[in-house]
Structures are given as C-alpha cells and as structure tokens.
Amino acid sequence: SNRAFSDCAFAKAKAQSEKARLEAKKAKIQAEINQFSRLLSNVKKESKTMVLLVETIDKKIARTQELINITNKQANLITRSIKKNTDENNKLKKEIKIQKEEYARMIVKAYKSKNEQSRLMFLLSSEDFLQAYKRVQYLKSYADYRKKQADEITAKSMRLEQINKDLEVEKKQKQEVLKVNKQQRVALQKDKQEQENLLAVVKQDEKKYSKEIREASKERAIINRQIQKLIEADIAASNVGKTGAVKGKFYLSPEAKVLANNFKSNKGKLPYPVDEFIISRKYGDQPHPVLAGIKIASNGLRFQAPSNSPAKAIFTGEVVRVQKAANGILSVYVRHGNYTSVYGNLKSVVVQKGDKVNTQDILGMVFTDNSGVTELRFVLMEDSHTVNPSSWLLRF
C-alpha cells in the first residue's frame, strides 16, 4: 500500500515536472510570437520591406505550429492523467466497498461476542497457559486489525475525495488547453493566408526583390571583410616583437591567457547580448526563406529586439574598438583574451576604447531602421576566424 502510494506520488511529480517544462517552453515561444507580431505591425507595407514581411510571417507560422504541437502534448498529458485518476478512482471505489463489507461483518461478529462473560469463558476454556496467552494475543490482533481496516477505509475515502477534486481541475484544464489550441489554429490559418497574399506580390516582381537581396548580401560581405581585416591587423600588432608569437593567433599575456581560458570554460553558458529577442538570422550559409536560388551568408547571429533595447557584453573583457560607419551606425568590439565579440548596428554607445567591461554591462543601444526593425548584428571570433555563437551562448 505504501509502495503503491510512493509510486503514485513519483508518477504525479513526474507529470507535474513535464507540465512545468511544457509551460516554460510555451511561454518562450509565445514571447517570440509576440515579438514577431510587434515586428509585423511596425514594418511598413512598402516595396522595400515586402521580403522582410514574408520572412517574418514565415518564422511566426513556424513558431505558432510549435505552439500548437505543445498544446497538443499538454492535452495528451492531461488526458493520460485523467485516465489514470479515473482508473484509480474506480479501483478505490471497489476496494472501499469490499473493505466496508468486511468491516461490517467484523462489527457484527464483535457485537455478538462483546460481553465480558463470553470473552472470559473463551480465555478460561483454554487447556493451558500457553493457549490462554495465544487467545489473548488473538483478541488483541483482531482488535488491531479492525482498527487498521477502519483507518484504511478513512484514508482511501480521503484519497478518493482528492482524486475527484483533481479530476474536476484536470477536466477544466483540458477544456482551456483545447480552447487555446483552437485559437492558435485559427491564428495559423490567418497568418498562412496573409503569407500567400504577400508571396503573390513578391512573385510578381521577383527580379526586383532578388536584386535587392543580392545588393544587401554584397553590403554584408563588405562589412564581414572589414571585421576580418581589423581583427587580422589587431593580431599582427599583438605579435610585433614577441618571442613565440604564432601567425594568425593573438599573442596573449599571462592575464589574457587566464581570461581566454575563463571565456572558453563558459562555452554554452554565456548570456545573450540582448534581453528580449528573436533570432532573425542564424550562423552560416543558408537558403533564402522566400526566394529560391538565393543563399544568405551569415558570419554571426542577428537578434531582432524591441525598440530601445540595450546591447550587453556577453563576458568580461576590454573594449578594443568603437567603430563608426559612414551612415553613423556604430559597432563595439570587446576582447576576451584571443576571443572577440562584436556588437553591430548600434545607434549609440556608452563605452570607449580601453574600457574594462563585465558580463552583462551595457555597451550601447540597438539601432531601429525606418521599417521599424531593431536588430543587433552579433559576431563572435576566435583569433581571426568566426565561430557559431549559438554553441557559446546559454542553451535554453
């Protein structure tokens, strides 16, 4: 009985843990969808932002589908829990019924032999002292067993009452989850319809949009090469006159080596450079989500964030460069030993070259363009080559 209760408690705790995990995941995805919705409402519906609109709604659709999958899992989890509780309910009812019948028979039997004379005669009729002792033990055990039966009936009745309450709560939870699931499906269909309408517009003038995307890619390639050249120049400067310097790698002082090792030991645990965000572009070459035959080269991550979002240092380090582009857009370079984190597309900065910064210190504010897009361009480098920031940042 105790083991059954323990197994039941373990199963319940496991189910609660799974519920909490799904809720947390659902909240994270919902926050991303809200961010996509804000972006869609901010972006002006003009030719220059049409492809961005299609890309954004494509991502929103994917996340909404994930949300639907999670609510399906939640509904299934609750259904299993309801079945389990219903089965336990039926089992307890049968057990209580049998125990009550047995208890009633015991009470009748006890009533018939309750007078002291009959008990005394039962003891006095013993053949010897040992038999009398065994009969006393029997009467005591019988009384204890009766009490145990009564306690078990009470405990099971209380458990039955709790199960019935749990069932009512779970049935309401399931109704709520199914209601949310239905709303999500309606929203998904609406977004898919809007996506089709936008795609139709893009397809009408595909050459024009393809040209714009290729021009933007060329601009990104120029910026990427600039970052590469600047880091290579920094490496060369660090190696001048140093014994044991290795070409293409930063020469590190003992202090810088410690910092680099600390940075490396925190791989997979570093905080994100913005607080609230959606990853709008991943690292590496990837096909364009809207136009076929076009590949996008990405040397880092892009984070779309709410307007007036601050960019924050991902680790302790030194500001080695604050770069200003011809259009006034700023970038901050922070060195962590032989690693460099680059925070691009800033409208303002609060640091300068030579500043020491700590993890999560604010470096500046992310720029918002005319389309209403606030996007941090984040690059992470080990010596002269880029690495995938997703491998280094905190995993959800």
TrEMBL record:
Give the source's domain of life in one word.
Bacteria
Chain coiled-coil ranges: 10-46, 82-109, 150-233
Q: Which Pfam families match?
A: Peptidase_M23 (PF01551)
Keyword flag Calcium:
no
Domain named M23ase beta-sheet core: which ranges?
A: 298-389
Alphabetically list the UniProt keywords. Coiled coil, Signal
Q: Gene3D superfamilies this protein is in?
A: 6.10.250.3150, Glucose Permease (Domain IIA) (2.70.70.10)
Q: What is the protein named?
A: Peptidoglycan DD-metalloendopeptidase family protein
Organism, as annotated: Nonlabens mediterrranea
